[in-house]
Amino acid sequence: MEPATASVMGLIYEEGSLWIFVLVTIILGGGAAWLAGRAVAGTWRPAWQVFVYCLILGCAVRFIHYSLFGGTLISLHYYLIDTTVVMAFGFLGFRAARVSQMITHYSWINEPGGPLRWRRRGR
């Protein structure tokens, strides 16, 4: 890997392998955030709660990087990166569940408008 590419990748993850970042942050953290977002939407709670839960999940992801792979536990930079990825998955899970709810529970007035949207019938 070229030095310039290695330094750019160092901004995203600190371990020696991209696969560790993919496994821990995207698959484990993102999967947990997706489920948390769906759970918040499933109980008809507001979207800001996904934000709070994802802040906590960001700490958990940072701890897994630290405890299993020797990453830095207290690093604002990597915490923000991990939390940003986790929040993206959390809000996508929330939105997907909310769209499903609006189409299922209010089918007489709403119809699918795309994977993450609904629209009023008759428009």
Could you provide a short overview of the structure?
With 123 residues, this protein is mainly alpha-helical.
Key features?
71% helix, mainly alpha, transmembrane helix, 123 residues
| N-end to C-end Cα span | 53 Å
Output the strand order for the largest sheet: 1-2
Number of helices: 4
Number of strands: 2
N-to-C series of helices and strands: HHHHEE
Strand content: 5-15%
In the predicted model, the low-confidence regions spanning at least 5 consecutive residues are none
Mean pLDDT: 89
What sort of overall outline do the alpha carbons produce when their principal axes are compared?
elongated
* Whole-number total of structural domains: 1
Radius of gyration: 18 Å
Overall structural class, as computed from helix and strand content, comes to mainly alpha
How much helix is in the residues? Answer: over 70%
Sheet having the most strands? 2 strands, antiparallel
Structural write-up:
This protein is mostly helical. The protein has one domain (about 15-120). The protein is about 70% helix and about 5% strand. It has a two-stranded antiparallel ribbon with strand order 1-2. The longest helix is centred in the last third of the chain and has 30 residues, at about 75-105. The chain is elongated and about 55 Å long. The mean pLDDT is about 90.
